[in-house]
Design brief:
Layout lengths: L2 E8 L3 H12 L4 E4 L3 H10 L16 E3 L2 H5 L2 E6 L6 H8 L8 E4 L12 H8 L5 E5 L4 H5 L4 E7 L2 H11 L4 E6 L2 H23 L4 H22 L3 H4 L2 H12 L4 H10 L4 H8 L5 H14 L5 H10 L5 H9 L16
Parallel strand pairs: 1-2, 1-4, 2-3, 4-5, 5-6, 7-8
Antiparallel strand pairs: 6-7
The structure holds NADPH dihydro-nicotinamide-adenine-dinucleotide phosphate and 1,3-dihydroxyacetonephosphate (13P).
Length: 341
Amino acid sequence: MAEASTLAVLGAGSWGTALAALAARNGTPTRLWGRDARALAEMASSRRNQRYLPGLALPESLVYESDLAAAVRGAGVVLIVVPSHAFASILDELAPLLDADTAIAWATKGFEPGTGRFLHELVAEKLPGRPAAVITGPSFAKEVAAGMPSAVTVHSEDASFAQHLASMLHAPDFRAYSGNDVLGAELGGAMKNVLAVATGVADGMELGLNARAGLITRGMNEMLRLGVALGARPETLMGLSGLGDLVLTCTGDLSRNRRLGLALGKGVAIDEAVRQIGQVVESVLTADEVVRLATKHGLDLPISAGVRAVLHGEVTPVEGLKALMGREQKPEYPKGLFEPR
Ligand SMILES: NC(=O)C1=CN([C@@H]2O[C@H](COP(=O)(O)OP(=O)(O)OC[C@H]3O[C@@H](n4cnc5c(N)ncnc54)[C@H](OP(=O)(O)O)[C@@H]3O)[C@@H](O)[C@H]2O)C=CC1
Ligand SMILES: O=C(CO)COP(=O)(O)O
């Protein structure tokens, strides 16, 4: 029998650590699991995550657990914060370990690589019948860890679970809203990473502020078009999970996806740029999946497709720019753009 108020956070990188610290500081009994037992022991003794969140003093009450079974035993909520490429495998590992009444949440942004499946689809398939929620929105881990004001949103089909999880996180400097459009919330968080590369490339090429604003706006348009085709609600995409995170990541240099674009725009090779960033850069895998989903739904998303092509080295940033600027002249909003198809 799980204890509803107990939280197990899986993934001891920057975002998992920041969320675990936030919940523990809020008085939620919280355990943090990571795959690197040595790094976790070091965190337990120093009360710091020197690699991913240097500078943050971790709360005394946070418990570190390198054994996955022990970390999730009796937890009311398991919050997954591993990168998207590790998401499906961690669900497989969890399946035999969870109590029957443990709920699932995730703060990972992306899709299943190679299939374009949403993370909520993976959860429904591998851990069926449990309350499930996504936490997303404009939230750089470093700022949340520093107690700087932030707002996120928690979406679940189960309104009382969304509310329960939001209240575990909600704090004087951290607003947690709630909603029930899981697909829309996930799509915004995944697509903004791809679009952040586009504005990063433009800024790396020193194309100017007009170019940046144009890319953010037309990128938002791509998010809305794909979202509506998939059944997301436009207001979700215009909220924290879509527009909010798009603006943050396209303009804030703390964004690793934006920094990847900046480096590519300056002519740095992709492998070297990813190595220098040294943390997860979700767009590298997500761009393929956005284009895969768009193609499946008969949509042409030129900015996302351009990012994918640049990431694969199929075109240079200069060629990508030429292709975008050379597209046919047309109305900004063709009739019926936001109507469900
Ligand atoms: N950082 C942020 O500001 C935010 C991040 N996110 C999202 O959170 C997710 C995690 O990102 P973030 O914490 O920033 O990434 P980081 O690069 O900071 O950390 C990644 C963590 O995941 C671990 N990891 C990698 N592969 C596996 C695996 N196969 N199994 C278990 N653990 C694994 C790493 O462990 P190891 O050190 O051993 O490699 C590391 O602890 C991403 O989807 C990101 O988009 C969402 C909102 C904000
Ligand atoms: O998702 C994030 C902020 O909301 C973090 O963005 P990056 O992964 O680009 O650093």
